[in-house]
Design goal:
mainly alpha
Length: 140
Amino acid sequence: MSSSLLLASKLVSKISTAIFTGGAVFCSLVEHPARLNIDKRSAVKQFRPSLKRAILLQSTTSSLAFIGSSLAFYLEKDKKWLYSSILILSVIPYTLFFIMPTNNKLLDTNLDPDSNETKNLLEKWGLLHWVRSLAGQKLM
């Protein structure tokens, strides 16, 4: 039973990490640069629903990766799984303390989408998001 559980926990961790990383890297390399190449009003209009979908995907996959890595560490006592669980878990406070304030400003309906502030926030968001992408790549 424990060897099957160990295999399952590793699979859950790896697959969830791959989906998390793929989503983050796609956003950093493709989606957000494309967003920055359109007018600010359209960029904010696209950002808002995209963020809501991304939050669901990224929170689910990072949680599953954490659970899988933690269980693999518990069963196997291999520290690489402990490090993986800590790194994927660290994405949550990073997001809450560094990315969410920018998200909240971009989601604010009082934000003037044509302002320089909007442009600066979108650029800042892109830089902040790269940290998530790099964390995912490190986990792979």
